């Protein structure tokens, strides 16, 4: 299972390319602007995800993606009650008025992109995909911030 996150908020220029790219790809942005950095679905564990647990019509389903299990909205089953938008702790679920359905990040499961479109669009190279194992390794590392800064610097100097 993988998740998306801004690895170094200080290096995010706030250009919102990730959000506009997502909106262009799916009609509705599945990421959200804040006063500081953009925020993305945290890809909660399928058994615990508040959006899935609250849905009265089992419209939020678990599917197998290349990166492990991913939660998607089955538009056919969505009755647009919007409970998931209230239950999500970061309010990241969007509503697609045309499709009459809730919308959430799928890490671009439905596209041919190898990496999510937002990650590709980020010119600041601050957006990355992590697995749970990666995150655990980072969590165990006391020098997290410094190491990440160095890694990003190296990545930027090579790109
Ligand atoms: S809006 Fe759709 S996906 Fe969200 S809780 Fe209601 S039925 Fe489920
Ligand atoms: S939409 Fe919200 S509650 Fe659902 S998996 Fe993403 S962060 Fe978790």
Structure commentary:
This protein is 31% helix and 18% strand. β2 (60-65) and β3 (68-73) form a beta hairpin. The protein has a single domain (2-158), classed as 2-Layer Sandwich (Alpha-Beta Plaits). It is an alpha+beta fold and 159 residues long. The two termini are 27 Å apart. The strands form 3 sheets. The chain has a two-stranded antiparallel ribbon. The mean pLDDT is 85. It contains 6 helices and 6 strands; from the N terminus they run βααββαββαβαα. The structure holds iron/sulfur cluster (2 copies). The site of one iron/sulfur cluster (SF4) has 14 residues, from α3.
Largest sheet: 2 strands, antiparallel
CATH topology: Alpha-Beta Plaits
Alpha-beta classification: alpha+beta
Instruction: Give the CA-based shape.
Output: globular
* CATH top level class name: Alpha Beta
What share of residues is helical?
A: 25-40%
Number of domains as seen in the coordinates:
1
Index terms:
31% helix; single chain; globular; binds iron/sulfur cluster; alpha+beta; two-stranded antiparallel ribbon; 159 residues; Alpha-Beta Plaits
Concise account of the structure shown:
This protein has 159 residues and is of the alpha+beta class. The chain is built from six helices and six strands; from the N terminus they run E-H-H-E-E-H-E-E-H-E-H-H. One iron/sulfur cluster (SF4) binds next to helix 2.
Question: What order do the helices and strands come in, and which of them pair?
Answer:
Elements: E1 2-6, H1 17-26, H2 50-54, E2 60-65, E3 68-73, H3 83-87, E4 94-96, E5 101-103, H4 117-121, E6 127-131, H5 132-140, H6 144-158
Antiparallel strand pairs: 1-6, 2-3, 4-5
Residues 54-55, 57, 59-60, 73, 78-84, 102 line the site of one iron/sulfur cluster (SF4).
GO molecular function: 4 iron, 4 sulfur cluster binding; metal ion binding; oxidoreductase activity
Domain 4Fe-4S ferredoxin-type: 2-31, 69-98
Keywords: 4Fe-4S, Iron, Iron-sulfur, Metal-binding
């Amino acid at each position: 299972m993988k998740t998306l996150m801004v690895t170094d908020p200080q290096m995010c220029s706030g250009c919102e390319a990730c959000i506009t790219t997502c909106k262009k790809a799916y009609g509705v942005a599945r990421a959200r602007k804040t006063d500081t950095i953009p925020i993305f679905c945290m890809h909660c564990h399928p058994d615990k995800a508040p959006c899935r647990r609250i849905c009265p019509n089992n419209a939020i389903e678990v599917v197998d993606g290349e990166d492990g299990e991913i939660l998607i909205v089955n538009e056919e089953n969505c009755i647009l009650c919007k409970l998931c938008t209230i239950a999500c702790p970061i309010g990241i679920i969007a509503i697609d008025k045309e499709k009459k359905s809730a919308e959430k990040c799928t890490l671009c499961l439905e596209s041919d992109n190898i990496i999510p479109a937002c990650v590709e669009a980020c010119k600041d190279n601050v957006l990355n995909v992590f697995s749970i194992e990666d995150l655990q390794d980072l969590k165990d590392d006391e020098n997290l911030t410094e190491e990440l800064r160095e890694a990003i610097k190296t990545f930027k100097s090579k790109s």
